[in-house]
Write a structure and sequence with these properties.
285 residues; three-stranded parallel β-sheet; 9 helices; globular; binds 5,10-Methenyltetrahydrofolate; purine biosynthesis; histidine biosynthesis
C-alpha cells in the first residue's frame, strides 16, 4: 500500500486537546455553543450534521440543530440567522451547504456575523485569509484540517509545488490561500485547466477536491508525492470512495484515505474553531 495518512487518529488526538480546553473554558463560566442550520432533508447532509452534533456533545460543546423545511424562504432563513447573531449563548453559526436553489448562498454567508462565522465563509474572513491577516479570524475547516495533517506529514512546505484541483468556496479557494500563506508555490487547477497531466506529474503536493471517483491515479503523480483526497463519493452499493485511485501499492507516496482522512479532520477543526470563537467573545465582554 501507499502510505496512508491517518486523519482519524490525528482528529482523535486533537479532540482530546479540545475536550480539555472546553473544560477550562467551562470552569471560567464560558460554555462554547454552536448552532447548525440544515435546510431540507438531503441524506448526506443529515449524516454530516449528525457527525457534527455528536462531536460537539462528546467534547462538552453546546450544540443546537435547526432543521428547516426545504421550502423555507430566504427571508425566513436570514431572520433565523439574525436571531442567532443576537443570541449570546451562540458562539458559532454553520449553515450546511448545499442550500436549496431558491436561496442565495452569498447573501446567507454575508448575513452571519463575521465573529460567529465558524466556516470562515464571510467575505470579511475570506479577505483576511487572502491577505494573510495577523489578527484572529476563523478559517474554513476542511483546508485547515488539511494544513494540520500536513504539519505532521509534510512539515516543510516552503517553496514546494502544491497543486489544488477544484476551486470551491468550501475547499479549493481557501486551500489555495492557506498553502500560499505557508509559502508553497500554488497552482489552482479547474475544469478549464490545460495540460493538467503535466501539473500532476510535477507537483510535490496535490489536493484533489473534484467530486469524481478515481479522478486522479496515484501512478500519475511523482514517486514521492503527498496526495490529499477531499472527495466523498457514495457509490450505488452504499460504499464511500474518494477522488483518488491508489494504483501504486508499494510506492513511497502518502495519501489520505476515504473514509478516515480529511472528513474526521473537518469535524475536529470545526470544534476547534468553535472554541476559538468562544474565547474571542469572552474577551469582548
Ligand atoms: N457549511 C458547511 N460546512 C461544512 O464544513 C460542510 C458543509 N457545509 N457541507 C458539506 C461539507 C462536507 N463536510 C464533511 C464533514 C465531515 C465528513 C466526514 O465525517 N466524513 C467521514 C465519513 C462520513 C460518512 O460515512 O459519510 C470520513 O471521511 O471518514 C464528510 C464531509 C462538511 N461540509
Amino acid at each position: 500500500m501507499t502510505k496512508l495518512i491517518d486523519g482519524k487518529q490525528v482528529a482523535n488526538d486533537l479532540k482530546v486537546q479540545i475536550a480539555s480546553s472546553v473544560k477550562k473554558l467551562i470552569a471560567l463560566g464560558i460554555t462554547p455553543g454552536i448552532a447548525v442550520i440544515l435546510v431540507g432533508e438531503d441524506p448526506a447532509s443529515q449524516i454530516y450534521v449528525r457527525n457534527k452534533q455528536r462531536a460537539a456533545e462528546q467534547l462538552g460543546i453546546d450544540s443546537e440543530l435547526i432543521n428547516l423545511p426545504t421550502t423555507t424562504s430566504e427571508a425566513k432563513l436570514l431572520a433565523k440567522i439574525d436571531q442567532l447573531n443576537a443570541n449570546p449563548a451562540i458562539d458559532a453559526i454553520l449553515v450546511q451547504a448545499p442550500l436549496p436553489a431558491h436561496i442565495n448562498e452569498e447573501r446567507v454567508q454575508s448575513a452571519i456575523a463575521p465573529e460567529k462565522d465558524v466556516d470562515g465563509f464571510h467575505p470579511q474572513n475570506v479577505g483576511a485569509l487572502y491577505n494573510n491577516a495577523k489578527s484572529y479570524y476563523p478559517q474554513a475547516n476542511t483546508p485547515r484540517g488539511i494544513m494540520t495533517l500536513l504539519a505532521e506529514y509534510m512539515p516543510d512546505l516552503v517553496g514546494k509545488k502544491a497543486l489544488v484541483i477544484g476551486r470551491s468556496i468550501l475547499v479549493g479557494r481557501p486551500m489555495m490561500a492557506m498553502l500560499n500563506n505557508a509559502d508553497a508555490t500554488v497552482t489552482l487547477a479547474h475544469r478549464h485547466t490545460q495540460d493538467l497531466d503535466q501539473l500532476i506529474a510535477t507537483a510535490d503536493l496535490i489536493v484533489v477536491a473534484v467530486g469524481e471517483p478515481h479522478f486522479l491515479k496515484m501512478s500519475a503523480a511523482k514517486a514521492d508525492a503527498v496526495v490529499i483526497d477531499v472527495g466523498i463519493n457514495r457509490l450505488e452499493d452504499g460504499s464511500l470512495v474518494g477522488d483518488v485511485l491508489d494504483d501504486m501499492p508499494d510506492s513511497a507516496q502518502l495519501l489520505t484515505p476515504v473514509p478516515g482522512g480529511v472528513g474526521p479532520m473537518t469535524i475536529a477543526m470545526l470544534m476547534q474553531t468553535t472554541i476559538e470563537l468562544a474565547r474571542q467573545h469572552s474577551t469582548f465582554e
